[in-house]
Amino acid sequence: MMKTNDYFEKVNFRTLLEADGNEGLQERLNILDVFLETDEHITLERLYRLLRDRGYDYEPEFVRQSMNRMVDLGFAQKKQFEGQPIRYEHRHLGRHHDHLICTKCGKIVEFSDEGLEALQIRIAAMHGFHMLQHKMEIYGLCSECRAQRRPLMPLTLAKPGETVIVREMLGGHSARVRLADMGLRLHDHIEIINNSGVGRLILAKDCTRLAIGRGIAQKIMVSLPKDPGD
Ligand SMILES: [Zn+2]
Ligand SMILES: [Zn+2]
Ligand SMILES: [Zn+2]
After folding, report:
1. pLDDT digits (tens, 9 = 90+) for 122-138
2. In angstroms, what is the span from residue 221 Cα to ligand 1's centroid?
3. Cα(137) to centroid of ligand 3, in Å?
4. What is the residue-averaged pLDDT of the chain?
5. C-beta of residue 126 within 8 angstroms of C-beta of residue 118
6. C-alpha span between 190 and 156 (Å, rounded)
7. Ligand 3 midpoint to CA 139 (Å)
8. Which ligand lies nearest the alpha carbon of 117?
């Protein structure tokens, strides 16, 4: 995350807070201080911990409320990525970025791309919209998580949205027959529609959706395509 002039941010924040009345002013400035020193998309839980490490023992509710005040006044941005707790990040005036989120380890990567920004404005305009704001969140597996995955894995480990290739069916000939009965063959490309960790998996093969029990899915060995389109 790009650092800005923290000193200027603090002076600016103090001025706006003073206009609000002085209640809890010093405490709120201390929270801002600790927040500005971080360089991440921080959860409230982690922020309390950092504050406590500094000897500031504030009520969680006060910290939450102070952070939301920072959001209102344009110093912080509140973010909630799918499947993750609420996070706060710095708000740098005049600078915008978007996010890639790893659905396995939770890693958040920032990016900004002028071409993409212009394209979004153009798409909105094509539909008669004047774009005011947008959220561009790309969910996927980060490079480390991808590298950690074994080439062959049971279908139960595949993530929703992923396309995998059927490579092997454990359990011998009868298992292969069962697989064929379900409409699956070796080398089929299947897309994972739903795999919540409990109950059946929902897959798409060509234009058909298939529901497969976890027991049998455990025996279907799949791999990821090497490159998109493999
Ligand atoms: Zn953007
Ligand atoms: Zn990851
Ligand atoms: Zn960010």
Report:
1. 999 999 999 998 999 99
2. 38
3. 10
4. 89
5. no
6. 13
7. 14
8. 1
